[in-house]
Amino acid sequence: MLHxxxxxxxxxxxxxIVSYIKRYGDExxxxxxxxxxxxxVTFITNYNxxxxxxxxxxxxxxxxxxxxxxxxxxxxxxxxxxxxxNMSNFAINxxxxxxxxxxxxxxSYNNFAAMMSKVMKLSAFFANEIMLRTxxxxxxxxxxxxxxxxxxxxxxxxxxxxxxxxIWGTLKDQEIKLENSGFARCNNYCLVNLKYIDRIxxxxxxxxxxxxxxxxxxxxEFMTKLVEFxxxxx
Length: 234
Prior knowledge:
Helix content is 33%, strand content 32%. It has seven helices and 15 strands.
């Protein structure tokens, strides 16, 4: 189920968009959770990175849609943004904040449905992502970019090809979050992405230059998951 926010100061326009979302879901057999906001300031002040897509009216008092999108991108680099506007020339600025699309008022259902189909395709592309709460704010991370996750001094470290990302949390919670993404525990402090394992020897997993212990207590369950993942070819 996708969670969509609609930021629109005009109540009738906001309710119309919400009704279109419901209609699209009914016609296409998909569910949506929709949350409406009547101004950008309230939305961004208490922003919680739980949304898959955000529909933003460009012309609003106190803070317009473009200003909101600029602030939003500093907190959430991957959420899908769609602009709602009276004047299509304003929407060109949307490229600066990686907007998915824009729809021009008055919004017809046919145009809206075409835009929603685009949103659905993109959301499916980003489906294998997890949301991390870092000190800088919400951070989306593709699961296939994660090599392994370890806990050290009560901090979780996500190791990727490009960087290491630290968050607070428990390894058990991350194991649940990643359980359908090809990850397995090899010891009490490390969760590895099975596709990144180069070899197993000397009681260690080798992932690039890293050697990670595979403990005896975890070995049976780990090897079972490895065979399920690769078959018997590893």
